[in-house]
Amino acid sequence: MQRMQLDFEGPVAVLKFNHPEVMNAVGAQMLKDFAQALEAVKNKSNGARCLLLTGTGRGFCAGANLQDDSNEDKPKQAGGTLRGGYHPLLFELRGLEMPMITAVNGAAAGVGMSFALMGDIVCASRGAYFLQAFARIGLIPDGGSTFLLPRLVGWGRAVELSMLAERLPAEKAAEWGMVNRLYDDNDTLMDGAMSLANQLARGPRSLSLIRKAYWNTWQNSFEQQLELEAQLQNEAGASADFQEGVQAFLEKRDAEFSGE
Hints:
2-enoyl-CoA Hydratase, Chain A, domain 1; three-stranded mixed sheet; 10 helices; 46% helix
């Protein structure tokens, strides 16, 4: 992979946008590498039980690389690029059967902001910022941001961010509920994010089911969500981790979950 860097640190898959010369802006090669990396993360033989997504250098991801000319066959319409390149990645991240943490170490702009918000837990350094940059170049927000933002920060704030295209500092994003954990600098950011990732990676199989339940709650009725809870509870109750959790509780010790 040229534009993504993937390392397995124990049960944590650390995936980094890796084109620091352009603040990790996304081009055709990065899209291909991202898809390849996710296949490796999902491969059970690699032992990953949590994904940590971050960026190399000074930025998390600066959005689409407008100067990218690496794909001569790319669609002439922007929507085609979304459908063929970005949407499959977003669907893969949504359906990932493990927790996902994003560590925003700098600019998260355009579709980079969308990738940042896909994390179950969003961590950021105080120097980071978020930017709905689309209106600056005459486009509309994409990457699922028109779905995610109003649900995270409310209608008014989402429209304001998208229409005014102003930077949202990480501290303000934390106040608005977009960021879960705020860190003083990038060093403490990565230490904190890795600590959280390891904690989640040691967690039970039910964490992936919790993730599935919350993604579905945005489209389900109350009745549908109750039924989904019952179905997922059946799956969790049949897991080895549930048996271990109960046994550990009875024996008054910490559970040792296997993710099975």
